[in-house]
């Protein structure tokens, strides 16, 4: 299958590209810079110059492909306005991709986030989160899933709080960066809130499986670790960096504070049973041992 991918040179995307190429697919990768284009080409993909805001380029990429995987996101967490702009940009991009695929019977796999289910681990049957700082992402992916009624084999791979590789990535990576800046490896409240996680190489396998076989209108959980307590994550970061580990005020995390404070464990039992997906790579706490001081 010829696959058009956005975000193909990031931590998750580079793993997905390698997984696709390793299983006989060819890849057309959106590249917003010369450096990204070189990285895509070196990985074995064909670059297509453009960014997530270039809707005509996105439509052209989808038109040239037999399937689409969407991973790109601005990841600008510097403030509420920047985050809202990133969400709006992604929403417009997904709408453009959906328009191009309408009625084609081709697959699109959109990255999403695991939902919140108070008092328990969320499952694939729970609805996407459509409120809060990143609620717009949930609404955009829900619209993509609704394309199942319009002749699109649309699916969502819901990613956990941290997708990691070699001690980097995801919200745990943000915690590491903030710890380096502030001199404290912190957490909100008592730190007992739980974050699910998955290794990027395991997540990549699920994106491929969803692209190849998942039924239209379905959502899947790329969750290997159901939920590590944030204070345990912070403890590993603090030990690796030689920093104190303690509770910090919400403003430390800016617009992400409500998300960082939430207890949000998640299950992937249905995904494993239905698609035969089985994570094989190191857990988050094991992987964080690779953080360099």
TrEMBL record:
Chain intervals for the UniProt region annotation (Disordered): 112-135, 264-293
Source superkingdom: Bacteria
Membrane-crossing segments per the record: none
Domain NAD-dependent epimerase/dehydratase: 3-215
CDD domains in the record: SDR_a7 (cd05262)
Record InterPro entries: Epimerase_deHydtase, NAD(P)-bd_dom_sf, NAD(P)-dependent_oxidoreduct
Name of protein: SDR family oxidoreductase
